[in-house]
Amino acid sequence: MFKRLFIIGILLAVASWVQAQNDKDSVLVTPQTVTTVAKTDHNPTKSLLLSIIPGGGQIYNGQAWKIPIIYAALGTVGYFAYNYYSDMRMFRKEYLAIGQSGICTLPGYEGISGYYVYNYYQSNNKNFQLFTIITVAVYGLNLLDAYVFGHLYDFNVNDDLTMRIAPSVAPDFGSRMGFAPSVNLSLTF
Question: How many domains does the chain have?
């Protein structure tokens, strides 16, 4: 059994050595393949400051397609925050009026007790606070998006990304055989 594993290991080692001899040197640079990338004067802090007005930093970063998403998100959570705020004020005003007269006069809520009006007030107050926090979080994501993509503005993204997986043999000094089969992973970018 040991002899078979040893022979298989030697064959894998020789195969990987032969393949390594056939591979082209990836460090070889010819004058035709050298490309220079001009560093732009793109400032991430400027994109952050411009995004104080939602979408300004995205325009500066060249990502204007994000502006409708930002305004849709801010408009949606802003609408719900405003709706809950106006209902909260209405129920608070009615609860204070019930305390003086004892009668609920809100249209659609006639005849309910002050306990229920107070519960409606508390529910709308809680939802208003929640949507206010969510609005601040969405606005913060706008700022964070502009700042992060301001840093990644000069990041080179091209189609020259490759990955090659090949079997290989690695030294293993803790075993009796002295080697172990392994997988070689090569990334080129």
Answer: 1
The helix or strand, by DSSP H or E, that contains position 59, with its residue range, turns out to be: helix 56-60
3-state secondary structure of 50: helix
In the chain, how long is the greatest CA-to-CA distance? 100
- Domain of residue 140, residue span: 42-156
- Give the pTM: 0.61
Token pair for 43 = 């400032």
Q: Is residue 7 one of the residues assigned to a domain?
A: no
Residue 142 zone, left/alpha/beta (φ > 0; ψ -120 to 50; rest): alpha
Q: What residues contact residue 145 under an 8 Å CB cut-off, 6+ apart?
A: 51, 57, 58, 66
Residues in the chain: 189
Residue type for position 56: G
**What is the tens place of the pLDDT at every residue in 104-148?**
888 888 878 888 889 999 999 999 999 999 999 999 999 999 999
- Residues forming beta bridges with residue 155, ordered by sequence position: none
